[in-house]
Amino acid sequence: MKGWWWKGFAVVLLLYTVIVGLRTPLGPALVHTSITRIAPGEVSLEATGYNTHFTTGTPQVWLENDGQRICASQVKALSDATLKASFIVPLGLRNPMTSLRSWDALDGPLVLHEAFFTEGRGTGIAEGNCAVNETPRSGFAFPDRAILNETIRNLFFHVPMWFTMMVLMTIAFVQSLRVLRTSDLDADRMALAAVHASLLFASLGLITGATWARATWGDWWTTDPKLNGAAVTVLIYAAYLILRGSIPDGHKRARLAAIYNIFAYVLMLVFIMVLPRLTDSLHPGNGGNPAFSSYDLDSTLRAVFYPAVTGWVLLGVWVYTLNLRVARLKELSDEANDG
Amino acid sequence: MRPAEIAHLLKLEWQLDRRQKHAWGSMALYVVSTIYICYQGVRHLADIPIWNALFWIILLFAAFNALGRSFQREDQGRQLYLYTLASPRSVVLARTIYNALTMAALSLISLLAYVLFIGSSPMDHAQVFTFILVVMAGGIGFALVLTLISALAARAGNGIGLMAILGFPIVLPMLLSVMKASKLALDGMGWDVTGKYVLWLLLIDAITVALAWLLFPYLWRD
Predict the structure, then answer these.
(1) Which residues of A touch B155 (CB under 8 A)?
(2) What ipTM is given for this predicted complex?
(3) Is residue A64 scored above 80 in pLDDT?
(4) For A245, which residue in chain B has the nearest alpha carbon?
(5) Pick from A124, A137, A330, B37: CA 20 to 30 A from residue B179's CA?
(6) How much is the pTM?
């Protein structure tokens, strides 16, 4: 059978996505401190890391306030993920928030932004002798971000679902245009097969999105414009199927369904592009929230994301061709039974 | 498609509606009785978001009810007759304009009845002129979007039920933005804040009319 190679390619890409996307560790990060407020004088705290190697990496720890550093007077690794540090905090730090930073040979530079409220502020301090090492870590790992943490892997599953859905809906749109131009019933079958496949991917997108939202936002569903757009899209194509179901005559069904599909597809594109820009959104990539690309400084996410998108889109097209073959065979067997 | 043809069709619509006065009466009655039922449930509402949401829900269902009959009243014979006389694009444009005028009037009637029964205290600090403008723009927007949907549902041989299913997801984003704009107007925000919502509504309106104009000929022939 010619033309099967892209199916093999899709399988390889998706295997790569699942294995590398789920097996790659997150990079080390500082995630917690035992205190949230520092005052001038002696301060001692416990910091918690994730995927860190404090016992073997000989960590350096320092506080940073508006670019000024205070190095720890004493650092002791309690385990790979916890360390104890003491500081002599001087009077006069400028910024209300102070960050905690560290470096060790295995984990490279780490930071917990705005970890402490600062007391006893002034116009700046005289920096002591505090030289720090900032040699970056080497190795392949995904970035670890506050709140997102391990859910960052959802990027390889949730986002490509919507890309695939849009590709399939575009196929349905083009086939609907063909229906109106030629009244070809086979084009109508193609549009229907594409809509069925796109609804499958929309459901997967909703499931992966809701699970992610539960983990990060604390709720399965919110009234976010991006989510409203997704709901409208699914409702439109469900309505498309109901419209088809209510018309018995094949040619009339093909034409009316094509008209609705074209009308709905164009309006849906407008909604999806404009709606999130009109109101605030919590969704990454909207309304001032950074898209994941801004976390991906060393392109480790991209190394999985691009293959994932390609793989899922190819899989979607594959599902579509299978749907179409089933529909055509059903048509043939119906004709044979009638004859 | 000629302007004279559209004007003629508009006149025809007007005459038909004047002859069937019950059609207008039924629309007004639908709105008033819905509002009266809400009044029985809530008496006077002072809460702005609820007042606003309830009004838009009533107007939305009034629009479905009013526009659902837009293509329903044609029997097969008269449609065939119209088909031989006028170009389909004139028919859809005339029907769209007529529906837009109907909905502009109906939204004002609804607002009046709503204020009478449910109370006007949420409008105390409102930009009244902007608010009325948003209400009319919303009503006209519903009319433009639902005209083609109404034709589709009528051609599918399935009345208001199918129209609600087909129309709801398409109207929803428009409803969200007019609700937001009217809420802002009620909170006393001026045109500088609500303006972008109305402009966005006009954009959808323009695209909708263009699509209806392009697609209707395929719907019209049998």
Answers:
(1) 252, 256
(2) 0.87
(3) yes
(4) B156
(5) B37
(6) 0.85
